[in-house]
From TrEMBL:
GO terms for cellular component: membrane. This is ABC transporter permease. The chain crosses the membrane at residues 24-44, 151-174, 195-218, 230-252, 264-282, 318-340. It is found in: Membrane. Keywords: Membrane, Transmembrane, Transmembrane helix. Pfam families: ABC2_membrane_3. The lineage of its organism: Bacteria, Pseudomonadati, Pseudomonadota, Gammaproteobacteria, Oceanospirillales. It comes from Pelagibaculum spongiae. The keyword Methyltransferase does not apply. GO terms for molecular function: ABC-type transporter activity.
Length: 346
């Protein structure tokens, strides 16, 4: 493997991209306008709906709060005892308005947590007092509200990165093969591995640069929340981009039809659009749907970035997602390397 060959291919691919001014401006302008639109629409308030979490160790405990669960216009989400810390963190960030726990011993009072700075929590506290026959013991937490624009930013950047990686790499590879560019490269000392690595590095440089500019720009412009480590967020960005580029290479390693490539790329991208929590949370959705979402690379990218930004997550917290992305990348690269062909005939 020759480094000079890889560098030459990287330079050629980068020049091809930045000379296409329309594509370059679209990659920068579209996500920026989308984020600004969300900031204008949702920056100063969320949806007018109460969300209450409850912890009931068994059926008898759940019956104690059943009158409250029957209340209309309140979205109830059940948590296990082990998920209590996670639920309290959501309450701190105003992602939930109240948390109620029914104790295992019937003689003990119910406990409920409200955020002292949440107007909805205050309203729900009065609803709880008027609904439950059994007295409840009040607990409080404190925390700053995470606006919808803070929450949705990782999703918008993840969506832009996904389309840039999948369609930018996939279509280019198919076009090269269809136009005979790869066939001409086959007559040079360039090896398939060198070509694949050049495509990966070139697109990664582009995606990381564009995403960094967009994030820093919106962070300064809108005063977005960033509680975690910048280096860790950058690591998630690079790992995620590497995984998505590898997926594009695996899909289009043998294709020579742009129509077929477009269909397959859409087949992989649209499930990630709806199931990777780009625009809305899957909390409370079907467990099967949540398991399917965990098999999508964009889910791990967005959830890790969101945890770092809004919750201050450390390396140990996002390590499972990073490991999953690395394993997926290795599988995709193996598929791409073994099925790659230079021309339409083989």
């Amino acid at each position: 493997m020759r480094i000079t060959n890889i560098l030459a291919l990287i330079g050629a691919r980068n020049k091809e991209f930045y000379r296409d001014r329309g594509t370059l401006m679209w990659n920068l302008a579209f996500p920026l306008l989308l984020i600004l639109g969300f900031a204008f629409a949702f920056g100063y308030g969320g949806q007018a709906m109460f969300k209450v979490g409850y912890i009931a160790p068994d059926t008898s405990n759940k019956q104690a709060i059943q009158p409250l669960l029957d209340t209309k216009y309140i979205d109830f989400v059940e948590y296990s005892v082990d998920q209590k810390a996670s639920a309290l963190k959501k309450l701190q960030h105003h992602k939930m308005d109240m948390l109620i726990q029914s104790n295992s011993q019937q003689t003990q009072p119910l406990q409920y947590w409200v955020n002292t700075s949440s107007p909805k929590g205050y309203t729900l506290e009065n609803i709880v007092k008027g609904t439950l026959a059994k007295p409840a013991e009040k607990q409080t937490v404190e925390g700053n509200e995470i606006r919808y624009v803070d929450w949705v930013l990782p999703g918008v950047l993840g969506m832009n990165m996904m389309f840039s990686c999948l369609f930018g790499v996939g279509y280019s590879l198919v076009r090269y093969r269809k136009n005979g560019v790869l066939k001409r490269l086959q007559a040079t000392p360039v090896r398939p591995l060198e070509f694949i690595l050049a495509q990966v590095v070139s697109r990664m440089l582009l995606v990381v640069s564009v995403s960094s500019v967009l994030f820093i720009g919106t962070w300064q412009l809108l005063g977005l929340t960033m509680l975690g480590n910048w280096l860790l967020l950058f690591t998630v960005l690079i790992t995620g981009a590497f995984c998505l580029i590898s997926l594009a290479l695996a899909i289009c390693a043998r294709l020579s039809s742009e129509e077929l490539a477009g269909g397959l790329l859409n087949l992989f991208s649209w499930p990630m659009m709806f199931l990777s929590e780009l625009w809305f949370s899957l909390e409370g959705a079907s467990p099967i749907l949540q398991q399917i979402a965990q098999a999508l690379p964009l889910t791990h990218i967005v959830s890790s970035a969101r945890a770092i930004m809004t919750e201050g997550a450390d390396l140990a917290s996002v390590a499972p997602s990073l490991i999953t992305l690395i394993i997926m990348t290795m599988i995709f690269l193996l598929i791409a390397a073994t099925s790659f062909r230079w021309s339409e005939q083989g």
